[in-house]
Design a protein that fits this description.
- With 925 residues, the chain is of the alpha/beta class.
- The protein is built from 34 helices and 17 strands.
- An 8-stranded mixed sheet has the order 8-5-9-4-10-11-3-12. A 5-stranded mixed sheet has the order 13-14-15-16-17.
- A hairpin with a 3-residue loop joins strand 14 and strand 15 (768-777).
- Helix 13 (302-316) runs antiparallel to helix 14 and helix 26 (630-650) packs antiparallel against helix 27 (664-682).
- The chain is elongated and about 125 Å long.
């Protein structure tokens, strides 16, 4: 520094303790001129006062106060002097108002995106008026909340801009894919990470002997969910191998899937929809990826680690060949160059002659990526300056937009530190001389920064604040803005030019229609012009054709929107009215309708359409399941009880008196243990301790039921005779004949019904055979009346099982397996195994005779609706079931026009009546 004859210092108004020592030495030994922003009598400079008096005056030999700039901007909008004016009007403000070229605007919007959208429109206006882009500034206290919106909105409006903000590269999908690749082994091949990596456009899927095969990550995701894979490469490979073997079994000609029984086919859905080549493709990819990741040494030098990781990235990461424009491709290539640059830098650490573990190297590399950033905006251009308040100090603008003038934003939220309050900091400074800045003085600095910004604008000043956020939650304007508005209000009394509020305030509506309607067409983007024309019902197909847009797609979208929002008196194709179902129907009747399927239609026809016709399926995320899926738990209960009662029947436990040596509970325990072991071998158990608790719970529920059931059998004299009995109702059954005679379409005599009855118990006497039907339930207990639910089509399992059991027993009579006697229903029961108190919901024989006709009529109406292609959203007023429906996001049940159409459509008259049916009591006479 001795080579300098004089030193000029500027750009700061406060220093930390170490910085004060540094500059103090410079001031002491070198001729220095300090330019300090400070006005003694101005309240905006209160923050600088202490620094000026305690530090600057200690070293200053002379002080020169420069005259005020004639073009002092808009700083007079604040109360600029400590003393009050006698007339309560700031003379500088009056002078500013009298200058016609000075324009002040306050703009209130909803959300940060609307702030920048409005700024973009105003910038375009300024450009049309001759203002150069480089003379315009956009400033916020901090730009982090606006970064993404600035980049998107300004580029949509083709506004060039430069900014000090940089975008961290870790936000980009390319860097995310690289991080996932390197952490895959450490994450134990966690399913969501594996699927995200395979879906990434930057992941180069190895052909692995499958050249020409199109990768299907969507199918791999479904398959991994169906196989309940959570992670672990061994689990991945073993379950994929199981899937291939099961698929080969399902595809055998003699398999039951080909027999037409739908419930068996449903078990195979997860496999038969995924081609074998895709399962093998995924298996080979994971196997190769695992081998390559395992080839990276656990411990090696920095250079070896860098080379291996770089080679891995080059093998598995590449730029997509399509779906990316040239600008994005250049930006992604720049990121990739930075990544390889970091690896080369880590290579140089090898000079320390130390080895590093694989985890340490990867952590160091990922941490280095977090500190890398790319410049936002345009390079080497004269554009709008987008800066934060600190970076904007000392820069002049012809027009300035100040964003985010809300409380806790500008000024920012400041509070004292609980463990070192401001008064303690002050004492430490006064007594010990240790300078520790006081927290609450930050408010004084905020006011100083705001003063600088007001002073930076020369001709136009735009003050923007949010009256509400994007969600509509109210926001409080900054008290800086309130002070300015108060001063302007006072000036109104003397200046007629500001009496009109619209002269200095702009209100931006939340409504997209109003926003676009209030803007001139030249200020709108092509997309916004299209939206505006559509909202104003102006024909703009010529506009679309001019700019090469898809008019056919637009017309379809507009028609759909009109139909969805129209208050018609009938439902449309967008409400589940799909029309002719003959093709699907002809295929379906060769299989069979199950009770569960018909229950689904009764609860919600629209859900039936999505689930059974379109065959949409919701797969759970295995990693979110704490134990085993609910459907597998229910199957476990059924399988255990099936094996138990089959064993007891084989051992003639219910027929012989000499079987006291058979203990059903001991047999239950052995069977349960066998099924638990099977579950553990087939399904991943994420939390073994919870699984042990669940096993105890399952066994406890089953023991309670078996004890209760055996006691019931002894008291009532029933004997379990048929377990998990599959029954089909075909052409010669009376029920099918009833439907064929009453339904209004051809081919209805081919309808089949099928189901599996958990248990049929018989009590054979001299002149009749009494039977009862038992269906196990492991789910939530239902308080619904079984009779009312049956006739309304909400609970159809028991009616179906009664009809099927009667049919099955008549067939047994014909085959001579039962003596020729009258068949009489005692009752059909749903037994809730897991309820606090063992509960059963039953339909007794005499009740069945009363509701049988109503049930069949309901079922007939359902079949007619299905054949006609009428699948409306549920008409039931009880919406509790909707809370757990998988399709709640697409049904639009809460849409008011849809509710209107549901209430007016005459085709649903009979369905509405079914939803309100009551049991008709037969006349005893």
């Amino acid at each position: 520094m001795k080579s300098f004859t004089h030193i000029l210092a500027y750009g700061f108004y406060d220093l930390t303790g170490i910085e004060q020592d540094f500059w103090g030495e410079i001031f002491r030994f070198f001729p220095t001129t300090l330019f300090l922003p400070y006005q003694k009598k101005h309240n905006a400079f209160t923050y600088v006062k202490n620094f000026f008096e305690s530090f600057v005056l200690r070293f200053a030999h002379s002080i020169e106060e420069l005259p005020e700039d004639n073009l002092q901007g808009f700083s007079c909008l604040l109360i600029s002097e400590l003393k009050e004016h006698t007339d309560n009007i700031n003379p500088s403000l009056e002078k500013l108002i009298n200058q016609k070229k000075s324009i002040i605007k306050t703009i209130n919007v909803s959300g940060k995106k609307d702030e920048l959208w409005t700024v973009a429109k105003e910038i375009l206006k300024l450009a049309d008026e001759g203002c150069k882009m480089e003379e315009i500034g956009v400033v916020a206290r901090t730009l982090e909340p606006y970064t993404e919106a600035i980049n998107k909105i300004f580029k949509e409006h083709h506004i060039p801009f430069i900014t000090s903000v940089q975008e961290p590269i870790e936000k980009y999908p390319l860097v995310k894919a690289i991080q996932q690749l390197l952490l895959l082994k450490r994450e134990n091949y966690y399913r969501p990470v594996v699927i995200d990596l395979l879906r990434s456009p930057y992941f180069k899927i190895p052909a692995a002997g499958h050249k020409g095969t199109i990768p299907r990550p969507d199918q791999w995701d479904l398959l991994s969910r169906k196989l309940y894979i959570r992670g672990d490469i061994n689990c991945w490979l073993s379950r994929l191998k199981q899937a291939k073997s099961k698929l080969s079994e399902f595809n055998k000609p003699d398999n039951k899937i080909n027999s037409g029984y739908s419930e068996v086919a449903d078990e195979a859905n997860g496999y038969i929809r995924i081609p074998a080549i895709q399962i093998e493709f995924l298996e080979n990819i994971l196997s190769k990826l695992s081998n390559d990741l395992s080839s990276i040494p656990e411990k090696a030098s920095w250079s070896v680690m860098s080379e291996r990781v770089e080679q891995l990235i080059r093998n598995y990461i590449s730029l997509p060949s399509e779906g990316i424009n040239s600008d994005e491709q250049n930006r992604v290539q720049l990121i990739l160059d930075k990544i390889f640059g970091l690896l080369h830098f880590l290579h140089t650490i090898d000079c320390l002659s130390e080895e590093v573990t694989q985890d340490q190297f990867i952590d160091t590399f990922i941490d280095a990526c977090r500190h890398e950033a790319l410049p936002l905006g345009y390079e080497n251009c004269k554009g709008v300056k987008v800066l934060d308040a600190m970076s904007a100090r000392g820069i002049q603008f012809r027009a300035l937009f100040i964003l985010g003038l809300n409380e806790k934003v500008f000024p920012r939220a400041i509070s004292e530190e609980p463990f070192l309050r401001d008064h303690t900091r002050r004492k430490l400074c006064e007594v010990l001389g240790n300078y520790i800045p006081e927290k609450l003085k930050g408010y004084e600095e905020e006011r100083l920064l705001f003063y600088f910004l007001l002073n930076a604008a020369r001709e136009r000043l735009y003050l923007l604040y949010e009256r509400s956020d994007e969600a509509g939650k109210p926001r409080i304007p900054s008290h800086y803005l309130m002070d300015i508005l108060q001063n302007i209000k006072a000036a109104n009394k003397k200046n007629a030019s500001l009496t009109d509020k619209s002269a200095f305030e702009i209100y931006v509506s939340r409504s997209i229609k109003e926003k676009l309607h209030n803007k001139e067409i030249p200020l709108l983007t092509l997309r916004e012009i299209g939206i505006r024309l559509a909202l104003e019902h102006i024909e703009f197909v010529p506009f679309l054709k001019t700019f090469g847009k898809d008019t056919h797609l637009f017309n379809r979208l507009k028609t759909t929107s009109d139909n969805v929002e129209d208050y018609k008196t009938c439902l449309t194709a967008h409400d589940g009215i799909v029309g002719d179902m003959s093709e699907w129907w002809n295929e379906k009747i060769h299989q069979s309708f199950s009770p569960t399927n018909m229950e689904t239609f009764g609860l919600c026809p629209f859900k039936y359409f999505l689930e059974k016709v379109l065959e949409l399926e919701i797969f759970e995320e295995p990693e979110t399941i704490e134990l085993i899926p609910a459907i597998d738990l229910g199957t476990l209960y059924h399988n255990i009880l099936s094996d138990l009662y089959n064993s007891l029947i084989e051992k003639r436990y219910f027929n012989e008196t000499k079987t006291k040596e058979i203990n059903p509970l001991e047999l239950l325990q052995d069977i349960t243990k066998k099924h638990f072991e099977r579950i553990e071998s087939e399904l991943p158990i994420p939390y073994p301790v919870l699984w042990e608790v669940k096993k105890d719970e399952v066994l406890t529920f089953l023991k309670r039921f078996v004890q209760w059931d055996i006691e019931q059998i002894k008291q009532m004299g029933y004997i379990p005779s048929y377990i998990e009995q599959t029954v089909k109702l075909g052409l010669h059954d009376n029920i099918i004949k009833y439907f064929s005679e009453s339904l209004e379409f051809p081919g209805c005599q081919k309808i089949k019904f099928g189901g599996k009855i958990d248990r049929i118990d018989l009590k054979i006497s001299k002149d009749k055979v009494d039977f009862r039907v038992i269906d196990y339930k492991s789910g939530k207990f239902s308080n619904d009346n079984p009779l009312k639910s049956a006739i309304r089509g909400k609970k159809l399992q028991l009616p179906f099982y009664i009809i099927m059991a009667e049919h099955f027993l008549r067939e047994e009579l014909k085959k001579g397996r039962l003596t020729d006697k009258d068949i009489n229903l005692e009752k059909a029961s749903l037994v809730y195994l897991t309820h606090d108190e063992l509960e059963e919901k039953s339909i007794k024989g005499k009740d069945w005779e009363e509701i049988k006709g109503q049930c069949l009529e309901t079922l007939r109406e359902f079949l007619q609706y299905i054949r006609d292609g009428i699948f409306p959203v549920s008409l039931d007023e009880d919406t509790q079931k909707c809370s757990w429906c998988e399709f709640i996001t697409v049904c639009r049940r809460s849409n008011h026009p849809l509710q209107f159409r549901l209430g007016k459509d005459t085709r649903l008259k009979r369905f509405r009546e079914i939803c309100n049916l009551s049991v008709k009591k037969k006349n005893s006479n």
